[in-house]
Design a protein that fits this description.
Chain B: It comes from Desulfuribacillus alkaliarsenatis. Chain B: It is found in: Cell membrane. The structure holds two protein chains of two kinds. By secondary structure, chain A is mostly helical. The model of chain A is unreliable at about 1-10 (pLDDT under 50). Chain A contains 13 helices and two strands; from the N terminus they run αααααββαααααααα. Chain A is globular and about 65 Å long. A two-stranded antiparallel ribbon of chain A has the order 1-2. Chain A has helices at about 15-35, 45-50, 55-90, 105-120, 125-150, 160-180, 185-195, 205-230, 235-240, 245-265, 275-285, 290-315, 320-340; strands at about 150, 155. Chain A starts with 15 loop residues before the first helix and ends with a helix. Chain A has one domain: ABC transporter involved in vitamin B12 uptake, BtuC, CATH 1.10.3470.10. Chain B is mainly alpha-helical. Chain B has a single domain, classed as ABC transporter involved in vitamin B12 uptake, BtuC, CATH 1.10.3470.10. Chain B has 16 helices and no strands. Chain B has helices at about 5-10, 10-20, 20-50, 60-65, 75-105, 120-135, 140-165, 175-200, 200-210, 220-235, 240-245, 250-255, 260-280, 285-300, 305-325, 335-350. In chain B, helix 4 packs across helix 5, helix 5 runs parallel beside helix 10 (about 220-235) and helix 7 (about 140-165) crosses helix 13 (about 260-280). Classes of the chains: A mainly alpha, B mainly alpha. At the A-B interface, helix 6 and helix 13 of A face helix 7, helix 8 and helix 16 of B.
Amino acid sequence: MKVLSVVKPKGKRMNPLFMILILLSITLVSMFISINMGYTRIPVQDILRTLVGLGTFEQNFVIFDARLPRIVIAVLVGAGFAVSGAIMQGVSQNGLADPGILGLNAGAGFAVVLYISLFHERIGMASAFALPIFAFLGAAITAAIVFVLSLKRGTVDPIRLVLMGVAVGSGIGALMLFSTYYMGSYQYEFVKIWLTGSIWGTNWAYVGISFVWLSFLLPLAIYKARTLNVMNLGELVATGVGAYVTKERIILITIAVALAAVCVSVAGSIGFVGLIAPHLARQLVGVNHKIMVPTAALSGGILVLIADMIGRILVHPVEIPVGVVVAGIGAPYFLYLLIKTK
Amino acid sequence: MGVPLIANKDGEIKQTLFNKEKNKNRTFQRTLLIILSLIGIVVGMLASIMVGAADIDVRTVVQSIVSYDETNVKHYTVMELRLPRAVMAFFIGACFAVAGAIMQGVTRNPLASPGLMGVSAGAGFGVIIAFAFFPDFKYHQLILVSLVGSAFGTMIVYSVGTAASFQSRGRYAHVKFALAGAAVGGLLSSLSKGIEIYYGVMTNVMYWYAAGVAGVKWFEVKTILPWSIAGLLLAMVIARQLTLLSLGDEVAAGLGQKIKWIKAIAALSVFILVGAAVSVSGPIGFIGLVIPHMTRFLIGVDYRWVIPCSALLGGLLLVVADMASRMVNPPFETPVGVLTAMIGVPFFIYLARGNKKVGL
């Protein structure tokens, strides 16, 4: 159970950079397919024409105003959740750690719900920018609570950490449900959509917000990933080779919490991505975090993108929220991991 | 870590069971607990009947029970709206609590409870399947579906949990069961949500669960009652064996118990109890976790007493929580699950922080 992340790679692996290139092209191809999927089918040559600015009014509307922002957000959010999970698994040395399980999604969500019920006006631009900050505060406070609760005699037992996350998460879930009863119908509708993990912010403003935050956080996380390699050796060795373990750990956790918070504030609580994507990445490229973290980001992006696509085309005209689809894929994988880990 | 609760306390259990001096003491505690909780239930039900949109005083309540006058609006409110609700709340609380007690006894896992082990989630899934595919199901058919669902959810959690703890040679077995329960709960509730959206029954289901015990009439009480009483009786039948089983399978087998049969009856009883309760109120968490611990703490581990006392305490808790759900934010009703979570989560944290009693 303890150190899933040091499972030895089996057999020969592909060149990691080659793997990243493959994933990148899968991402682009699925984005392209996703543009075409939906109620209005648009022929491939028309998509290309529209993308370079020669489309009809209707095609422009469908592609640029409805589908593309949503697709970009799906990829960004998937990458964010995945990297957040990869860092948490690396720092806690626990293969079951992820922002959803540790209660961070719930904490960020509760902050968002509070924000919405406090400010009664519709979500405007300015407030949309502030949303991730609120979410971060909520997630950070939750992380602190979970950490303090799992602290015992100066150490944090990885398993107790997960149990505390589950407990705190369900407590916050109850508070959230409770607070929805004090809301107006607009806010209530919003929260209901948001809780199922829907990509609700489907205009370019939200793409901008998440892009601004993530374009800073994701590279930072990938840069910092090398310290995770050192941490994998265990605390004593890590201190021995001169890494400032505690300081680095706090930085990494802050990045992970911020990533989860940004994603939650744009796309609601999408569980299981942060859990699965790092495991997939480890299967693909091994345990070197310098390669593993970017691979996880790409796998997470693909996962959410495809889940969103499935949710959109599975049953016309209703949409199944992406969170539901991801959970449908993710929970069985989680159970499989649970059986496999020692 | 990993040493189960009750096996840890083998010595104490033998003392409790076989030490006459201590038993005398326990008898006093048990009688006291039963008397107090009965008083509590009468007072709680009375209060629950009195509190609401229309305030009703004690005399009217007693009058309407003793000499019911159909034409009197207040009498009607008491007898047809508030009393069935209070009775139903009591039975649902009792069902969840006893189901939790049985599960903790059989598995010797302090975290075992209908909510955490996928039983409630399975039952809820069954109810939603019924809503989507068999919209004209009658009430008693709904209970059956819910019962099958609870068996289904439990089966998944149990097989994953067993396989997982087998892999790790029994270490962390408790935690793995709890995590498997959480994941299966997540899976089933997301599947339910998908089905709700697909079949457009979301509003029906939300109305159903939001109503909880609120809209209950005597008709529903009469349909549920046989099931929950049957479940409780089954639990009482195997109560003695549960005490022995909680010492560990080997001990129980050594004492000549037919373990497989007892476990099968225990499982059946859990399915009936949870299936019936969830079909009315949806999954209400934490009662099944908290109440059995509380009961064992108060009166010891003899399941012949733990089962009835859990039933009383669980019923009392839900009657009070249901009343509170009406008082928090009138005229709206706070979901009763929120109130039980407020009590249950701190307790869960206390358990999971691994005090010696639990042995986590």
